[in-house]
Amino acid sequence: MTQYVINGGNKLHGEIEISGAKNAAVAIIPAALMVNGVCRIENLPQISDVSTLLNILKEMGAVIRVVDKRTIDIDCSHVGTSSATFDTMRRIRASYYLIGALLGRFGKADVAMPGGCNFGGVRPIDQHMKGFVAMGAEMTVQNGIVSATTGGRLRGASIYLDVVSVGATINLMLGAALADGNTFIENAAREPHIVDLANFLNSMGADIRGAGTNVIKVRGARRLNGGFYSIIPDQIEAGTYMAAVAGAGGEVLIKDVIPKHLECISGKLREMGVSVFEHEDSVTVRRVAPLLGAHVKTMPYPGFPTDMQPQISTILSTATGTSTVTEGVWDNRFSYTDELAKMGGSIRVIGRTAIIEGVPYITGAPIKAGDLRAGAALVIAGLCARGVTVLEGVNYIERGYEKMIKKLSAIGADIHSRYVSDEPQIVVQEAG
Ligand code: EPU
Fold first, then answer.
1. Counting beta carbons within 10 angstroms of the beta carbon of residue 167, is it exposed (0 to 12), middle (13 to 18) or buried (19 or more)?
2. Which end of the chain is more exposed for a tag (fewer CB within 10 A), N or C?
3. Atom of ligand 1 nearest to the CA of 114
């Protein structure tokens, strides 16, 4: 088992480079299945969710060539199956994008129900299924496998999403890209990675308009051809390091970002007394005065992102006064607050709202991450705390953050990882 050991209290100074967006990469890699020809994908983040998806594609017969550490060529021309190994699929949430990609390419798909982060609530896919049924697919779920079939190809349809769902918007866009006729996705999600996927598919020959608004129109293409594409920077990775600087104090230039994607986070940090300066493709975050309490509500983009909720609650733990953080996307995403309580944080959760009474400081403790963003938040807690924090469950962090320890160490954090055996220790006493 790997643990992160954090000696808190250092201020952060220097520069940090942001990697390609995880949630764009995990949509674009399955989309490569729909392409006849070689897709060159640049700015891929080096994270375990990406490796898992590439392994799934390889199992399906894709030829993958590593060009350099951030660039790969994927050739799915000879993929001839609609299914992949269920065990690998279950490891990752984004495996549900294989449903849209395979239905688009082959008119049928068998995909294991997605795994991935479970922050306590149910993660349904009824809106994905409803959309594919409207497009003519027959869908069944048995023994944890989603099976979808069509007579040949999906048919374009008008689909109104009952909830604003990133996953359903992406999945239906994938299927619609190779459907017969036009598809309209209404009440669509507008996250930056939805626009990124649409740009990727359009550069391969799809016809998708309106991505980034709440109505997306897809004119089905007969085939998609290979090409080049570079993934956008990760909004949430950037936001996580912005929160880290806000919490620990100091001044850091966060490079290779799209400042517009960060406005929802920058605005909230400014309310908390943090200076955020936007440049062309970077932002400077500076915090010298004590943090001020604030009220936050998570919402679909362009609202404050749910994937930044644990990180903002963590830094509000040592802000002045009483803050509230309301989760507007997921039913339950507050399990990490029990770990913050072990560090001296004062957080009460009532329904979907956390009420945070700011304390002067928190202290290091042995704690455990239960999901990706909770893990990132607990690293921030360790950086802000007095004393040593030992964090378990870091495999979640490595699913979505590239080289977090290296990046934080470079800006002055005292953090390292260590391996501890899970085996029970047997003490052998020497005779005599
Ligand atoms: N929902 C339904 N039915 C559906 C789909 C969603 O009721 O068929 C509900 C969900 O229960 C939730 C809301 O709609 O209450 C939003 O869910 P959404 O479908 O947007 O979430 P997702 O696609 O499963 C993606 C990200 C999550 C991020 C959410 C919201 C990926 C791989 N995952 O999940 O990211 O929290 O959008 O922005 O893109 C993360 O990166 O740590 C992460 C969990």
1. buried
2. C
3. 24
Dist CA 287 CA 11 (whole Å): 10
DSSP secondary structure of 160-224: E-SS--HHHHHHHHHHHHTSBSEEEEES----HHHHHHHHHHHHTT-EEE-BTBSEEEEE--S-E
Tens digit of each residue's pLDDT, the chain (432 residues): 999 999 999 999 999 999 999 999 999 999 999 999 999 999 999 999 999 999 999 989 999 999 999 999 999 999 986 666 677 787 787 889 999 999 999 999 999 876 655 665 567 899 999 999 999 999 999 888 899 999 899 999 999 999 999 999 999 999 999 999 999 999 999 999 999 999 999 999 999 999 999 999 999 999 999 999 999 999 999 999 999 999 999 999 999 999 999 999 999 999 999 999 999 999 999 999 999 999 999 999 999 999 999 999 999 999 999 999 999 999 989 999 999 999 999 999 999 999 999 999 999 999 999 999 999 999 999 999 999 999 999 999 999 999 999 999 999 999 999 999 877 655 555 443
The structure's pTM equals: 0.96
60's tokens: 């399906």
Residue 374: strand, helix, or coil = helix
124 lines ligand 1 (CB under 6 A): yes
With a 6 Å cutoff on the Cβ, whether 166 touches ligand 1 is yes
**Contact 352 CB / ligand 1 (< 6 Å):** no
**What is the position in ligand 1's atom list of the atom closest to the CA of 26?**
32
Nearest alpha carbon, ligand 1 atom 28: 307
Pocket test for ligand 1, best of 50, 165, 299, 311 (most atoms within 8 A of CB): 165
Alpha carbon 247 to its chain's center:
21
The catalytic residue positions are: 117
| Interatomic CA distance for residues 337 and 378, integer angstroms | 9
| Inter-axis angle of helices 263-271 and 235-248, nearest 10 | 10
Q: Whose CA is nearest to atom 39 of ligand 1?
A: 23
Q: How close is the Cα of 89 to the center of ligand 1, in Å?
A: 17
